[in-house]
Design a protein that fits this description.
Elements: H1 2-5, H2 13-42, H3 126-287, H4 309-317, E1 334-341, E2 347-354, H5 359-371, E3 386-392
Antiparallel strand pairs: 1-2, 1-3
Length: 396
């Protein structure tokens, strides 16, 4: 039994208490068995009196929650050997049935039955009682500790459950709030979009109506302007036609007057040119010494004085003709020219009508005619538009 009382290392106090309680219980059973055996052997055979035996075993109540314990590698405790059961008290032999009763004699008085002795309660060892009380106290403390741990565990679980419920509730509220905000935002966006579409439609309709009215106004304005323009154009054309007709009539009259004046002027100029031509021709004939020449037009040596118009022209041109005159050897080179004059006798242009055959002499005569500016006045005193003349290289 030494191993039962030893305290192997590695076991908790609770395991040691359980082990000791088990030993105490076995010892109590053994002691009770010995007492019963001695009583049977020493007492007369009789019906055994009932015996009350209290068995104490250290353990956990089936209603208590066992605290999970870590398994530890310990030596297996050998199961205690079963104690020999007390020998059963032999039952009394059955009483044989009495023979048939004889004629009933007088009954004898019944024997008095001795009451069965009340067995005294077994004496409890004080140490066992103390150990039992200590075990009960330890068991109670352990149960209370387990109950406290269970309450704490349940409290933690309840707190965790409530925290989880609160978290789930908050999460649900958050999601519900988000969903409500999302729906509110969608509703606001939908309303804003519908309002924008409505305003856009109204604006489009307003613009279309304004454009239609503007188009109608423009068309009406264009029509009015076209009518006014057509009317003004008709009036303008009528006025122009009237003005054209008046102008045409005036022009016709002016043209007739101009034509008459031109014809008159042409006749007068032709007469002047003819007179100048005749005068210059007479001067030329006089210069050549032709008999019968007019005395006032002939040059010296021609039977008259040198005061003719041709002599005046030659006297104006000759100093301005710059050309080296070579000695005469043959014909007399002659340049026929036409000088254009204005009403004041200013030279406007010079045209060589017939060349002398010498280009240098022609240019010199042209320059001399241009230099004679103003040109000598004709005998009539009025300058014709042009005058034709001749210039000879050598004096005749």
């Amino acid at each position: 039994m030494k191993w039962l009382w030893s305290e192997p290392s590695g076991q908790s106090p609770e395991q040691l208490d359980d082990r000791r309680g088990f030993v105490y219980a076995i010892s109590a059973h053994v002691a009770l068995g010995l007492i019963l055996l001695l009583g049977v052997l020493t007492s007369a055979p009789q019906t055994p009196a009932p015996v009350q035996v209290e068995l104490w075993a250290d353990g956990v109540s089936p209603n208590a929650v066992q605290e999970p314990q870590e398994e530890t590698a310990t030596e297996e405790t050998p199961e205690p050997e079963p104690q020999p059961e007390p020998e059963p008290v032999p039952a009394p032999e059955p009483t044989p049935e009495p023979p048939a009763p004889a004629p009933a004699p007088e009954p004898e008085p019944a024997p008095q039955v001795r009451p069965e002795p009340i067995p005294e309660p077994p004496q409890v060892d004080p140490e066992i009682a103390l150990e039992k009380a200590r075990q009960e106290k330890a068991e109670q403390e352990r149960k209370e500790r387990l109950a406290q741990q269970e309450r704490e565990r349940k409290a933690r679980e309840e707190a965790d459950r409530k925290a989880a419920e609160l978290k789930a509730k908050q999460e649900a509220e958050r999601k519900a709030k988000q969903e409500a905000e999302r729906k509110a935002k969608e509703e606001a966006d939908r309303k804003a979009k519908a309002e924008a579409e409505r305003k856009a439609k109204e604006e489009s309709e307003r613009k279309a109506e304004a454009e239609r009215k503007a188009k109608e106004a423009a068309e009406q304005k264009a029509k009015t302007e076209a009518e006014q323009k057509a009317k003004a154009e008709a009036e303008r054309k009528a006025k122009e036609e009237a003005a054209k007709k008046a102008a045409a009539d005036k022009k016709a009259k002016e043209e007739a007057a101009r034509k008459a004046a031109a014809e008159k002027k042409a006749k007068e100029e032709a007469a002047k040119r003819e007179a100048i031509k005749q005068a210059m021709r007479g001067d030329a004939l006089g210069a050549a010494g032709i008999p019968g020449g007019t005395a006032d037009r002939n040059q010296a040596g021609g039977g008259g004085n040198d005061n003719g118009y041709a002599a005046q022209v030659r006297a104006c041109i000759k100093p301005r003709v710059t050309y080296p005159i070579p000695p005469r050897a043959g014909a007399n080179p002659t340049v026929q020219f036409r000088v254009m004059l204005n009403a004041q006798g200013r030279v406007q242009d010079v045209e060589i009508r017939r060349s002398s055959g010498i280009s240098g002499f022609d240019r010199a005569v042209e320059n001399g005619v241009r230099g004679c500016n103003p040109f000598p006045a004709p005998p009539s005193g009025k300058y014709p538009p042009y005058i034709d003349g001749y210039y000879y290289m050598y004096d005749q």
